[in-house]
Design goal:
By secondary structure, this protein is of the alpha/beta class. It is built from 20 helices and 14 strands. The structure holds pyridoxal-5'-phosphate.
């Protein structure tokens, strides 16, 4: 499989290079030259395959010959080493719980797959590869955990001091081993600026092997297809599901659309957004307006300029009508998000996080117009990551899962640092 740049100004590359580079030199996103098609018998007999066989079959065409079969098998087994239950909230809505991984959010899947691919691709390097990531919260934890104890990889995470939630901070700072957390006296933008400057610094390039763990990386994007297949394995109805995806940068939804294009039965997709609704507005008006982002309760979706939307358009051959036929968009504000958490808890005893609640509210609105259709939401984070919102909505403290309890017993270890580049550079060069 070859990947071309959506800016069309860089040569095509294989999966190895696309993963190592992240972004094409012309700053375009990589996109596969062909869409593979699964055999009908694979889809029809999905239940007879193991989770790991499904994951292998989904990834193999995209990886091509850049990773040998036995290595790819090991990588997918490690990637999906936790449950992906499709839980029926009621007769018409189920929840695909993607939060049973180590950092309680769906980003674990993409981060684990990408980290293991990078480790394989850099196995013969004599210098370790150093991954630099700036995080506003969720990504850092998933990346830290994904790369924990991976041979030949050092991870340095920059996070804004005092601006991440307690669970998030513990996830970033308690890994130890090959993971280092730099606590920057500044904002997320300051952290990102430091990372960008380091990537352009010739002194650093001469001594270190730097790589990024960017969310547009093909290894992260494409491996998110796996759980759509695992959901289908558990889908009990004849009609294909309507799938509601809480979306920010649209990587998750774009992976679902890729799965659909390769043969997975899907009735319709719902782009469930908070008030950062560039895509739902486009679906309503055919006018694509990038906006500055607004803070909401579902803060992992506070994105005004979703980077993966261009990939969705490419999957739809840049055709607005095909997109509209396949996808509807909904805008859900914080008030409705809280009311949804409350209602679902009271009626069904099921606790949603704010992101899952946005997806649930959107699917409910779709079902008001399309009676009796069945579907599922992607529940992208455990409610424990957003205890304040959940408490506001339900009056309940979120009970902390056992793996999180362990987190609270650990000692935070971070290196405090000023936001000036000189200190950061000195730190990098002295390690
Ligand atoms: C990142 C994130 C999202 C948004 O996913 P995209 O792929 O960027 O659309 C939704 N929910 C949670 C909990 C997230 O961390």
């Amino acid at each position: 499989m070859r990947y071309y740049s959506l800016n069309n100004q860089s040569p095509s590359v294989d999966f190895r290079e696309a993963t190592l580079k992240g972004q094409a030199p012309d700053k375009g996103l990589y996109f596969p030259e062909q869409i593979p098609r699964h055999e009908n018998t694979f889809i029809e007999q999905l239940r007879s395959f193991s989770k790991e066989e499904i994951a292998f079959r989904v990834m193999e065409p995209f990886v091509g010959n850049t990773i040998p079969k036995n290595e790819l098998q090991r990588i997918v087994v490690e990637t999906i080493a936790f449950p992906f239950p499709l839980y029926a909230i009621h007769e018409h809505i189920a929840s695909l719980e993607l939060y049973h991984g180590p950092t309680f959010a769906f980003k674990d899947v993409g981060a684990r797959f990408m980290s293991r691919c990078l480790a394989y691709f850099s196995r013969n390097e004599t210098k370790p590869t150093t991954i630099l990531v700036a995080t506003s919260g969720d990504t850092g934890g998933a990346v830290a955990n994904g790369f924990l104890d991976v041979d030949g990889i050092e991870v340095i995470i920059l996070y804004p001091s005092g601006k991440v939630s307690p669970v998030q901070e513990l996830q970033l700072t308690t890994c130890g081993s090959n993971i280092t957390a730099l606590e920057i006296d500044g904002s997320f933008d300051d952290c990102q600026a430091l990372v960008k400057e380091a990537f352009m610094d010739v002194d650093i390039a001469a001594t270190m092997n730097l790589s990024s763990a960017n969310s547009i990386n093909v290894a992260r994007w494409l491996s998110q297809q796996i759980y759509y297949f695992l959901a289908h394995q558990q889908w009990e109805h004849d009609e294909p599901p309507v799938i509601s995806v809480p979306s920010g940068n649209f990587g998750n939804l774009c992976a679902g659309m890729m799965a659909y294009k390769t043969g997975l039965p899907v009735q319709h997709f719902i782009a469930a957004c908070n008030v950062n609704d560039t895509v739902p507005a486009y679906l309503r008006t055919k006018d694509y307006q990038v906006k500055p982002s607004v803070s909401t309760l579902s803060n992992a979706m506070d994105v005004g300029n979703p980077s993966n939307f261009i990939r969705i358009m490419e999957l739809m051959n840049q055709d607005y009508d095909s997109l509209q036929a396949m996808m509807s968009g909904y805008t859900i504000n914080d008030e409705t998000t809280l009311a949804t958490i409350q209602k679902v808890y009271q009626q069904y005893g099921y606790l949603l996080d704010p992101h899952g609640a946005v997806a649930y509210a959107a699917l409910t609105q779709y079902q008001q117009k399309n009676k009796s259709v069945r579907g599922y939401i992607l529940e992208t984070a455990h409610p424990v990551k957003f205890p304040e919102a959940v408490k506001r909505a339900t009056g309940q403290e979120v009970s902390i899962p056992p793996t999180a309890i362990e987190l609270f017993t650990k000692q935070k270890r971070s290196i405090p640092m000023q936001k000036d580049y000189a200190s950061f550079k000195e730190y990098l060069l002295s390690n």
